[in-house]
């Protein structure tokens, strides 16, 4: 039987050591095929992204792989325009709901070589697929200026323009 701690550690390794570096690489390199991310994101995938750029605001289900890739392209577009280099994880919390389901909260600082492009409070719901691989089932993102998850929650919502 898998313990809660083992599940949290497994989710953390999968997400922060495998998924996040791949997402960063895809955001930097427009020549890479973004479909590789479908190993981590598969339909149906729920998105709630509150963004001052209304083209990036999403609240709904991506029911096809093309829907998912369209959301991904729109998330990458302004990052590439701002010479995106990397995402720094300023804070993180990982939760195991069961041995096959969990949640991840993080503060992302998406950066160019010299400045922060954006800072987000993000929440991911993940599940272990029947083949043993973890998958993201839901993503919620909200702009913040805070350094920690607790401070971002205490600060309340930032309304998109």
TrEMBL record:
- Supply the InterPro entries for this chain: DUF6841
The organism's place on the tree of life at top rank: Bacteria
Family annotation (Pfam families): DUF6841
Span of domain DUF6841:
9-144
What name does the UniProt record give this protein? Answer: DUF6841 domain-containing protein
**What species does this protein belong to?**
Nocardia brasiliensis (strain ATCC 700358 / HUJEG-1)
Q: What is the lineage of its organism?
A: Bacteria, Bacillati, Actinomycetota, Actinomycetes, Mycobacteriales
